[in-house]
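Hi Y.,

Following your request, here is the sequence exactly as I used it, all 95 residues.
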Amino acid sequence: MRLVLMLLLWASAALAQPEAPLVARLSQDRVEVSTTFDGASILVFGSTAQPIGPGGAEILIVTTGPQQPFTVRRRVRVLGMWFNGPSARFAAVPA
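Below is the corresponding structure, written out as tokens. Let me know if you'd prefer a different format.
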């Protein structure tokens, strides 16, 4: 049992590599979304001193909007009609 645990710890330590510094930029910082929005293209470019990931080209890009308060409400049915029921308010939700 100890041997298996030691092998697992050794393997996880071998896989833990320091992150290579990544310098990235966007072609535009902001995309306005309105009622006439039909899509946008954003060019992401950058460089790194060392390959990232086991394949050398694995990058994950996450986009979020500004954080703002948001309220969700449960709809309840009373005598065949729908009304707003209990609600929950979240302080910082990405738009």
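The chain is about 15% helix and 40% strand.

Thanks again,
Q.
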